[in-house]
Every structure is written in structure tokens, then in C-alpha cells.
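Hi V.,

You were right to ask for the full record rather than a summary. Here it is.
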Amino acid sequence: MNNRSYPYKLFLCVAFFIISLSAGAQLAAIRNLQRDLPLIKDSTDYVDALNKLGLLYYQKTWDSCYYYGRKANDIAKRIHYTSGIAGSLNVLGIYFSSTNQYLATRYYNQSLQLYQQLSDTANIGQLYNNLAVLSQSDNDMSTAIRLLRQASDVTRSLKKDSIRSVILLNLSIMDTTLSHSSADSLRGMAHQIIQKYQDTLLLRYFTFLRLTADLNTTKSDKNIAQLEDFARVLESDESNYLLPQVYTTLASAFAQKGKKDKALFYNNQALFRAQLNKNHSVIIFALENLKQFYADSDDYKTAYKYASLISDEKEKQQEYLKKSGYTYTNYVLREKNLQLAQNRSVAETRIIVISSILLIVLLSALIVIFRLYKKSRQSAAIQQQLSNTLQQHNQQLQSWDQFNNMLLGVMAHDIRSPFASIISLSTVMEADDSLSQEELRAVLHQLNEVSARGIQFMDGLLNWIKSKREDFKYTPRLLQVQEVLLEADAFFASRQKEKGLRLEIADPYSCTVAADKVMLTFILRNLLSNATQYAPQDSVISATITPQEQVVSIAITDQGQGMEQEKIASLFSLKNNDFTSNGLSKGAGLALIICQEMTKLMNGTLLVESSPGQGTTFRLGLPKG
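Predicted structure:
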């Protein structure tokens, strides 16, 4: 693909019916739906109408998009309407895509899971595309391309394939590995679909794509004039969604031509259209362009004014999110409270089970003693059988006691630690009113990391507890090792940056394993946590992924102080194990024991290689995928 001189943004598909509507038709559709809404008697039809209104308002008024999406979600949950819940989650994801990408991603993924349960192929493709848009906004291009390819594969055999035109257009823009002919072929197929359905909105997007590509190639006044004509067409139809992109492209083109007045005019037009939409992220983007324009013109006073407006707009955005009750912190706290309630329920159930077992054992023992008293002269074989029975009961009780001691140890250390960190950080925020915005963001970032690590740890711990149940069924699936490794390491990125650490991954064969993702993530996260903690300042943590005959070897090595062989021998045993003498914290030692048990459950091996002063290597072996 050619290098692109002007900014591109993936096209967000919101629903099939909206694609074929012009701006005027959308306004008519909104009025008709609002008029008919009080007349709808069927609850499912009412939810569908609310979701359609939310999608229609996406290109007009973002606040209304949120209102109708939230209302549809509340009603759909109350009547247990799965398709309605999925649709409302998609609407809410679209709304938050411009203000809170974390929430948008969660809503999109929840909607995708529901549509997958319903085998709704068209909406599955739509959700893959919307997630790709978020990945592109986060500069994660590889994920965006992967999701678009999944969307293309899913929608390949659709009879009503209007959504496929959006996916093919986005793929032709994003996948820079495509040749010119391949990209043109994708755009050609998209254009055929657009013409088949007479999709006005997509036809304009396609026209914008073609005009911008021509402008990148020739940079001629004729191309700029054509793009200005296209902008006037959009203005006559009030196509607010696409106009900010067109104006921004025109501003960049005139700036390169040295026509500053024209560049300033179109930058202001982009800001005006974004303000009409009440789209905070686009408003901030337009203000950034104006700030940069005046800075490049050495008008630093005006540039500072726009910098202040950017700050004010961001504060408005955050204030609106607080009022809506859907800030990132609130969402995480709600998830954490739910997790704590689930943990309490599990603990109460376990206590009841253990008490029942102890009562049964006690009653059994009384019965046995009573029978022994009455039949004291029975044969030695019967006495031996009784002795064996009692021994089995004792082993069972010891096993339960060992399991509960281990569980209590982990809960006392690893679960208490993030809470202590959260309390410490919140105390700093409460005690010091003079913290700057940068310092507050740093504290909130730390709260984010601590909370996320706590949730992820609980996921692994609950999975381990489930594995202890007799009815637990292990179901492996194919996992790409490097993807899981990077996901696990994300929790330690900031700590590694502070210590000057660098993670080097060697995976020349893109290995896959047959394993449980939650367990594998838990194991890798603990191994990377130890490596990050004990690696010296400004050193390398290496992760080597090597395919062997039947297994894949994952070796994680740090350059720390290492351990004696006698300490390594007791590393995975609770008996006579002093975790602090091994150079590990108590919580880390218990976590390693859990890792060992999870590895065995997945038919793998976990070994340690270390010597004093030579660092430590944990070598995980799992069945090849």
C-alpha cells in the first residue's frame, strides 16, 4: 500500500438499516419512530425501536444515543430479551467509543458474546468491525487488522451483505501489507455492494476515500477543488459525521500549499461540526489542530488559548462521565464488589461442606466405636479393615486441611496486598488537596493497575479452587503463546519501565499450546511477576518459546541473584518450606505452588533452573497445540 499523507479513520458501522439512509431520511426515521413509540405494545418490539433510535442518533446527538441505549438495556434485561440486550450493549459501546474506550470495549465484547450465543452472523461481523475501530484508535494496528479479517470471514456468506462493504473498505485502508491491486480489489468489491443497496452514506464515504487517495498522489489544486465540492454536497445534506474528517483533510492540504487562511477556515469548520454533534473526542481533536496551527504560525498566545480550551473540554468530558455514573473507577469498583460477594459465597459454601464432612466422619467414628465395643472379639481382618477406613478418613481430612491452609495463606497475602495499596493511594488523594492533575492521573493510573491485577488474580484463584472439585472438567483449547504472554506482562509494564527492564520474546515459530487460558495467564503472570521483582535494575527478562516433539517449552529468565539448589528442591512443597529464605515472598511462594498444580492439571511440567549469582529460569512445558 502507498504511504498516506492525510489522516484516515476506520468507518464505524452501527447497523444495516442506518447505512442506506441519507441525513434527511434519518431525521424522518427518527421522527416516525418517536411518533410510533407510545403505540408499540409488544415489549420486544419496543426494545428494538429504542435501539434503532439510539443508532440513528449516533450521527446526530450523542447524548440521545446514550439515553435510548440505556433505556433499551434496562427493559431488555427485565424481560430477558437476549437480542435486545445485545443490541443495547452495542449502542452503549458506540456512545462510549469517543469518551471511554475501556467501557466501550467491555460493552462491545459483551454484545459480541450474546450475538455468538444467538449465532447472529451479521451482528457478529458488525461487532468485530467496531472493536477494530477501537483498536485503531488505540494505535493497536495488528489487532485492528486481525479483527477486520475475522469480520470478513464471518460475513463472507451473508445473503444480505451490506455490512460487508464497511468491513472491506476498512480492511483496504488498514492492512498496509496488501498490494495496490489487492487493496483496489477490496474497494471494488465494497463499491459493488454499495451500489447494489444504494447505500448513500457508504457511497459518500467511498467517494471521500477516493478523493483523499487522489489528493495524496497528486496534491493538485484540482483535487483540492473536488474535495471542496464534495464538502458542499455533505453540507447541503447535513452529513455531520463525515464532515469533520473532510474539513480536517482540506485544512491539511491547504496548510501544505501554504494557504494559511484556508487552512484556518477549515480547521474552524471541523470544530464547529464537532460541536454540533456534541462529540467530545472530535472537539478535542479539532482544538488540537487549531492549537498546532497557531503554534506553527508562532502565535503562541492564541495557541495557549486553544490549549486552555482543550483542558476545559477534557474536564467537561470527565465531569459528564462522573454525572452519568459510568467512569472507569466506578466500573472497576462495581466489578470488585461483585467479585467479593462471589468469594464470600464460595467461602460460606466451603465451610458448610467441611462442617458436613466433619460431622459425617464423627458420626461414622462413633458408629465404628460402638460396633467395636459390642463385637470386641471379631477377627483381626475386620479390625484391619476398620483401621484402613479410619486412615482414609484421616488422609481426607489432612488433604482438606492442607488445601484450606494454602487457600487462607494466599487470601491473607495476595488479596490483602492490592486492598492495602488501594487504601494507601486513596489516603494520599484524600489527605493532599494540592495534588496536580498530572499527579492525580498518576495515582488513578496506579489504582487502575492495582485493581486490574487484583481482579486477574482472583480469576486464577477461583479457577484453581474449581479444579479441586470432584466434578471439575478440564477443557483445553488452542492458545497462541505469545499473545497470552503479552497479555500477562501488561500488568507489569509500568513497574518494568520504572526499573528499566526490557522483556525480550523469542518465538520464531508462533507456537500454540492446548491449555486453559485463565490458568495459563495466571501461571505466566506469576512467573513474570517474580522476574520483574527480582531482576536487577536496567536488565533483560527473556522469554524463549521453543517447539519440541510433543510439547512447547516456555522459558522465562531473569538476571537476578538466583537460589541455592537445596532451596529449589523445596520450592513447590508446603512441608518445611520457608518461602522468605528462598528469596521469595510468602504470597509468591504459595502462588508458585498453585502454578505447579495448575500445570499438572493441564498435563504439563514446571521446572526451575537457578544458581547463586546466575539468575533464575522457570521452564514451563505444555502439550503442543
